Amino acid sequence: MPGDDIRNRVHSLREQLERWNHEYYILDSPTVPDQEYDGALRELQTLEEAHPELRDASSPTQRVGAAPLSAFSSVEHPMPMLSLDNAFSDEELAAFLKRVVDRLDVDSVPELVAEPKLDGIAVSLIYREGLLERAATRGDGTYGEDITLNVRTIRSVPLKLRGASCPALVEIRGEIFMPRAGFEAFNEHARRHGEKPFVNPRNAAAGSLRQLDSKITARRPLEFCAYASGQHPEEGWPGSHWDVLQLFASWGVPISRYAERLSGLDDCIDYFHRLGDERDALSFDIDGIVYKVNDFAAQRELGFVARAPRWSIARKFPAQEAVTKVTGVEFQVGRTGAITPVARLEPVFVGGVTVSNATLHNMDEIARLNLHHGDSVVVRRAGDVIPQVVSVIAERREESSAPIDAPPSCPVCQSPVERVAGEATLRCTGGLVCAAQLKAAVRHFASRRAMDIDGLGEKIVEQLVDRGLVRDVADLFKLEQGALLSLERMGEKSAAKLLAAIDASRQTTLPRFIFALGVREVGEATALALANHFGTLEALSGADLDDLLEVPDVGPVVAEHVHGFFRADANLGVLRRLLEAGIAWPAVAVAPEVGGALDGQVWVVSGKLESQSRDEAEAALRALGARTAKSVSGKTTVLLAGPGAGSKLSKAESLGVEVISEAEFLTRLEAAAP
């Protein structure tokens, strides 16, 4: 028998892990890093394995999954799970509210509660004595499938309700969904491993919940949000939907932080448009707004019609998926030679815009879709994601339609294409011989965060390359006014300004110059790390693979690309000519071994700042030892989010990354200053 010390430690670990879950999923304020959480969970697993008699169904360790099922069993819901009627316009919503007023025989619209309609899977959770007893899908509304083992793996679903006020039996209904960041990461992993990606987050959530092996579900990034009660005790139960949501939150059950109480049609329309404007920036998909009469007595008086309540309605957003036809496929060549297939479409209105093309990612994706010329396809546009073809309607395909084949050569320069083992991307082997790669390389070299050559836009680059005036980026520094005046729409004033901008760019910094070279996988943060580590271009160009792997966050792939770039004769020739053209930078002090107050932290800056530019904020952070990155990931410590942070804010919220305002950022800078 285990001693009291072990029992107490097990009890303490369980309480600690549940508290951290609550802070992460309910309060949106995590207090410990993932590493500490994982360490506590492993310790608890070890203790429970050594002392099986201490195992408990409500333990956080039970989220890892159980033995696979042979099939899901059917269960009956204590109360039917009804569907909702829909409104597709302000007029239809107004008609619903008028019916509510007329049936209640009142003078004005009663108080309503509005919540975003999550695009996921409706489920019923039954808690007995505060412990999760059963989870079931909605099914046909009367019978659903028992998915208890799978739901137990979802960390935002409490295995045990918090507080002492939990009833003996209560049913909590809500939505299980997959956040956008998790969906994109899952599909990217699937593509890299030759697996079939999901069409959209809703399908991903449904497919994850219906896994017979709950260990698979445990690896999927699912979340839960409660929106209603089902079976519950009559005595002492709240009298309104809003109060029930607050009760759920006090038990540690996730509810929508976007829920609001409204008082009439104008409020409802305003809420609909406010959420519609925020829709693309949310970390999860929504397809509309649900309005409910708040008071339960009024709900009972209104009753039901067919299989829907008279006291609730869903106002739907415009669809983010549409059906159209593929009119052709073009293969575009990027700066690194990557060849990306793009579908040309019959224009279709989807997600609030007219779409006429969509990415196909790579040839593996075309094979997965089994895409043929002229196919009818489903196109999806969600958030700030580029429109993409998600499925083919094969039954509409014409018999004579031919499949889409990979190009045997580069569509721009006709050089052979290659596919590196382990990669899904086709690449042109032409290098700077390829006009498409050269144009992209010149645009990158001149971009604001690289050499910052103002006025060297896409149209001018096109002409410079097409006319043979620029054969590599070093040729930019040989341009003369006469050559520029030969370009379309280029006057003397514009030519003089461009030459002045090219001349000014000769004075730069080593990190900017390294970034401008366009080495594969070397972004701004990596360029900065390389500059700080080696101090000079000579040291960097002479570094071997082992030297490169000593640079923070430079892994084997990046090291290979950097090493290979500085071993290519053509690249060395361009570098020599750039330096001969007078490009120079101040000496770089090699970064010391010990950092500042923010040493070891990774920051991302996004949105508009009032007190300074984003570049200045990043420089201030780096001066205090922090590392700055351009995208949010699981390694991000803090996101500084100004207005317009958009998808980075959504991803940070979904990953549990700390998000701070500009005011808090300035406070921390002052506190961290030496």
From TrEMBL:
Q: Which CDD domains match?
A: BRCT_DNA_ligase_like, LIGANc
Ranges for the BRCT domain? Answer: 593-674
Q: In the record, what terms sit under GO molecular function?
A: DNA binding; DNA ligase (NAD+) activity; metal ion binding
The active site of this protein is located at 117
Which Pfam families does the annotation name? Answer: BRCT (PF00533), DNA_ligase_aden (PF01653), DNA_ligase_ZBD (PF03119), HHH_2 (PF12826), HHH_5 (PF14520), OB_DNA_ligase (PF03120)
Q: Which UniProt keywords apply?
A: Coiled coil, DNA damage, DNA repair, DNA replication, Ligase, Magnesium, Manganese, Metal-binding, NAD, Zinc
Q: Which residues form the signal peptide?
A: none
InterPro entries named in the record: BRCT_dom, BRCT_dom_sf, DisA/LigA_HHH, DNA_ligase, DNA_ligase_AS, DNA_ligase_CS, DNAligase_adenylation, DNAligase_N
Q: Which domain of life is it from?
A: Bacteria
Q: What cofactor is this protein dependent on?
A: Mg(2+); Mn(2+)
Report the EC code(s) recorded for this entry: 6.5.1.2
Reactions the enzyme catalyzes: NAD(+) + (deoxyribonucleotide)n-3'-hydroxyl + 5'-phospho-(deoxyribonucleotide)m = (deoxyribonucleotide)n+m + AMP + beta-nicotinamide D-nucleotide
Chain residues that bind Zn(2+): 410, 413, 434
List this protein's GO terms for biological process: DNA repair; DNA replication
Q: Family, per the entry? A: Belongs to the NAD-dependent DNA ligase family. LigA subfamily.
**Which HAMAP family does this UniProt record tie to the protein?**
DNA_ligase_A
Listed name of the protein: DNA ligase
